[in-house]
Structures are given as C-alpha cells and as structure tokens.
Write a structure and sequence with these properties.
about 40% helix, TIM Barrel, about 300 residues, binds iron/sulfur cluster
C-alpha cells in the first residue's frame, strides 16, 4: 500500500509517538547561552525561542542568535500547535524597538530576526511597531540585516506596506501547514489570505526594485500528505516565495495537536529537491529546521547569487 504520509484515525487521545533518534535536542547551558538569557531578561525582551520552547535554542543562544518577539507574550489567536498562550494582551510598549536594537548591538548580531504574537486587536496589527523596530535596528547597527516574520495583518495591504517600506532584507510569513488542516490547526487564519500576503510582498518588492526576499515555512508530521505538501510548494512558488523552511512538528504538550508522524531525514531532503525544482531558490528542509534557523545564511546566499546575476 502506498504510504502517502497520512495516518488515518490517529487522534489526540492516542499515546504520543516515540521520538526517533535524529530528533535529540542539543545541550542547553554554557557561557554564551547564559549570557544571552541574562541580556534578554535585563532588557525585558521576549524571544520566540523561549516562548515556543524551540529545540534549537541551545545551539542558537550558544552562537549568540535569537528571534525577538514583539508585542507581548500573549496572542489573540489560538493555533492548536503553538505554545504561546492566548488571553488578555498587553498594551504596546513604545520603547520595545529601542531595546531590541540595543540587544542586537550587545549581541553583535550581523542579522536579526524579529517576529511577534498575533495582535488582531490593534488597528494595524502591530505593523508600525515592526517598521519602527526595523528602522531602530538599522540606525544603531549599520550593516545588520533584518528578517521579519509577520502575521497576516488580517489581509490589510496598508499594514503590510508599512512593514515593506521599512525594507527588511527578508519578509517571512509562514503558511504553517496545508490548507486542509487550517480549520484544525489555524482556525483564525486563512490559507488564501496568507498566500496573498506573500504575493503582495513579492509584487511590492519587484515594483520598487527593493531587494526584499519573500520567505515562508511549514511544519510536517501533522497529518498532511506528500501530495499536499508538493501542492503547497507550487502555491508558494507561484506567489513569489524565494526561501522556504520545512521542519518536523513537535507537540509542545499533550493538550496540543498531536504529532502524527516523524518524517524521515531522507524525505526532508527529497522535499528540498522538489521545492527547488518548483522554483523556490532556497529550501531549508530537515527535522530540526525552524522558521529562523540559518536565516542569515539563507539571506546571504540569495544576496550573493543576486550580485552574481547583476
Ligand atoms: S498566531 Fe502565531 S503566536 Fe499566535 S497562536 Fe498562532 S502560531 Fe502562536
């Protein structure tokens, strides 16, 4: 029987699958790791690394990188795969962009990644706060690249343009999973709306000749089929995506969406080949890959290929 990646009938009440050996977490702790933690606490900054309990946190903090999370620790959405709590959201902290920029300087980052919780309660979804953070980072850290991992801003093109005008090197918006699973996993999101965010970003960048690379990412092992992943990659390529990440979903707790399958490393490699054949220039695909994993390397590789073309 063809194994299409879907395990029918496996519900959250089933016992969790045993983690395979290729998914062992790297060691946390060490001088740089503790240093980064101390710096984040003293500046009252959040990172998605900690909030999402990312399996690469040890590796990233030890190489003095982190993904800053703006606009509080509480989200207005309730994605069933995500460890970030929903509930009462905090007021915007207008000083946060300055503190992020200073942390980037303290960590001597050459490439900063910034994301946020979803803030559907704000008129612009937090777009102006993103733009201000990008500009502050630039002003204080000349030469530092910036990637933003943005929400969908409820499809508001003006909010999106506010972020694009601040000219991040990379505009990332994650599709997260295949459209069939949106109701279960991203009930307040919309696959077509997310594709429009990507397409509008690419069109805006092309029309202003701005070197902004459009990126997306998904998790696998949540119940998708291989054919659905290939269709999603086709959609991503058709909507202007140049960089894509594919990683294994890990269940944050028993209350979250279950892992339905641990995808083999060879399958990740094969998906990367398919994605490139479909026209996505850089596909980072592997069990431990997360949205901002190797972000600087991806961006630098595309920048140098662009300069070779010119
Ligand atoms: S919108 Fe983002 S931060 Fe909010 S619950 Fe969903 S994945 Fe988590």
């Amino acid at each position: 029987m063809k194994n299409d990646g879907l395990i029918p009938g496996l519900a959250s009440a089933d016992p969790p699958l045993r983690k395979p050996k290729w998914l062992r977490m790297k060691r946390q702790g060490g001088e740089d790791y503790n240093d980064v933690k101390r710096l984040l606490r003293s500046a009252s900054l959040n990172t998605v690394c900690e909030s999402a309990n990312c399996p690469n946190m040890g590796e990233c903090f030890n190489s003095r990188t982190a993904t800053f999370m703006l606009l509080g620790e509480v989200c207005t959405r309730h994605c069933t795969f995500c460890n970030i709590p929903g509930g009462r959201v905090a007021a915007i902290d207008p000083d946060e962009p300055r503190r992020v920029a200073e942390a980037v300087r303290e960590l001597a980052l050459k490439f900063a990644v910034v994301t946020s919780v979803n803030r559907d309660d704000l008129p612009d979804g937090g777009a102006a706060h993103f733009a201000s953070t990008i500009r502050r980072i630039r002003r204080l850290n000349p030469g530092c690249g910036v990637e933003v991992l943005i929400p969908d801003f409820l499809g508001d093109p003006v909010a999106l343009e506010t972020v694009l005008t601040a000219a991040p090197e990379v505009l990332n918006h994650n599709l997260e999973t295949v459209p069939r699973l949106y109701n279960d996993m991203r009930p307040q999101a919309d696959y077509r709306r997310s594709l429009q965010v990507l397409k509008r970003s690419r069109q805006w960048a092309d029309s202003f000749d701005a070197d902004i690379r459009v990126k997306t990412g998904i998790m696998v092992g949540v119940g998708e089929t291989r054919d659905e992943v290939v269709d999603l990659m086709k959609d991503a390529a058709d909507h202007g995506v140049r960089i894509m990440t594919i990683g294994q979903y890990l269940q944050p707790s028993l209350k979250h969406h279950p892992v339905l399958r641990y995808v083999e490393p060879a399958e990740f490699d094969e998906l990367a080949v398919v994605g490139r054949e479909l026209g996505i220039e850089w596909v980072e695909s592997g069990p431990m890959v997360r949205s901002s994993y190797h972000a600087r390397e991806q961006s630098a590789a595309l920048a140098s290929s662009l300069s070779r073309e010119l």
